[in-house]
Amino acid sequence: MRSLPTPVRDAEADLRLCARRVRNERRLVIRVRLEDALAQYDDYVAGRGRPDAVAASRDWPESSAYFALYDFLGERRALAGLRLELRAAAGGRCLLCSSRSVDGLDHHLPRSDYPALSILPVNLVPACAHCNTLKGNNCDPVVARQFVHPYFDRLPRDQPWLTCEAFDAAGVWSPVFSIDDTHILDPETRARTAWQFDQLELADEYHESAVKQVAGRLREWSTTVRDGGVHTLARQLRLEMMSEADEYGANHWKPVVLRGILADPRFHRDPLPLFGNPRPFPGDWR
Predict the structure, then answer these.
(1) Which of 87, 91, 166, 176 is the most buried (most CB within 10 A)?
(2) Phi, psi at residue 192, to the nearest 5°?
(3) C-beta separation of 183 from 161 below 8 A
(4) With a threshold of 0.90, does the pTM exceed it?
(5) What is the distance of C-alpha 183 from the center of its chain?
(6) Cα distance between residue 242 and residue 244, in whole Å
(7) To the nearest 10°, the Cα dihedral for 6, 144, 47, 70?
(8) Tens digit of pLDDT per residue, the chain (286 long)?
(9) 144 and 191 in contact (C-beta within 8 Å)?
(10) End-to-end CA gap in the chain
(11) Rounded CA gap, 93 and 71, in Å?
(12) Computed from CA positions of residues 178, 183, 184, 186, in that sequence, does the dihedral angle turn out positive or negative?
């Protein structure tokens, strides 16, 4: 989960451009509701993307024509540049999980209920297919059950609100991710962050990603401990953690899992048994 600056885009110009580009038989249909659609744009921004701030447009007779405007974001279409701008601003990573690559654009308020907002830039969220599927057509009127809006809700980038308990009480490597919302000041955003974390099953996603990454590093870490000692490995991981946080933010699972590993005193006494004491490749040992 991440926050980004609001897209800088003339949304009205985009809508009017598409109204001119549609086929003749649909052009009048779009124009009949054009001013109403623009009024909904204003309501959306004023209401910060909340479903109770914008009237649903699914029952408009013109709803199917507005629903189809999203096709203009396709390759070589009139709004292809908008799609590329949004993906580039997200750095190619899903804004809902911050883990997987972007596969498409999710409608924060679903297109099925709000077709008039199909091409509104602030309603388009770069997302992976997995998160897009789990999010579905959510537009719950209860604030605590609404997804965090990446353009309107402010999640701290450099202050930690995602945590990882790297080892269990018995000293077994089993990373458990959870939300510590101390640094999320707004109570509504705190509630929505925790709810979204559960809805998108991010604890499982981050656990699996962390286990895979560490499994691929264990023999390297074993060699580092052999050649330079535990303090050398700890210094290496601390530098990696800082580098990952600079690149991805303090609440990406990569720096968070390293922070969790380094925070456990048992790691600094004898780290390798915590991970199952991996055997080195033949020839690793002198």
Answers:
(1) 166
(2) -70, -35
(3) yes
(4) no
(5) 18
(6) 6
(7) 60
(8) 888 999 999 999 999 999 998 877 788 888 989 999 999 999 999 999 999 889 999 999 999 999 999 999 998 899 999 999 999 999 999 999 999 999 999 999 999 999 999 999 999 999 999 999 999 898 888 888 999 999 999 888 888 999 999 999 999 999 999 998 788 878 888 889 999 999 999 999 999 999 999 999 999 999 999 999 999 999 999 999 999 999 999 999 999 999 999 999 999 999 988 887 655 444 443 3
(9) yes
(10) 45
(11) 22
(12) positive
95 and 2 in contact (C-beta within 8 Å)? yes
**Tokens, residue 214:** 């560490």
> What is the distance between the alpha carbons of residues 217 and 69, in angstroms, rounded to a whole number?
47
Q: What type of residue is 55?
A: A
In SS3 terms, the chain reads as CCCCCCCCCCHHHHHHHHHHHCCHHHHHHHHHCHHHHHHHHHHHHHCCCCHHHCCCCCCCCCHHHHHHHHHHHCCCCCCHHHHHHHHHHCCCECCCCCCCECCEEEECCCCCCCHHHCCCHHHEEEECHHHHHHHCCCCCCCHHHCCCCCCCCCCCCCCCCEEEEEECCCCCEEEEEEECHHHCCCHHHHHHHHHHHHHCCHHHHHHHHHHHHHHCCHHHHHHHHHHHCHHHHHHHHHHHHHHHHHHHCCCCHHHHHHHHHHHCHHHHHCCHHHHCCCCCCCCCCC
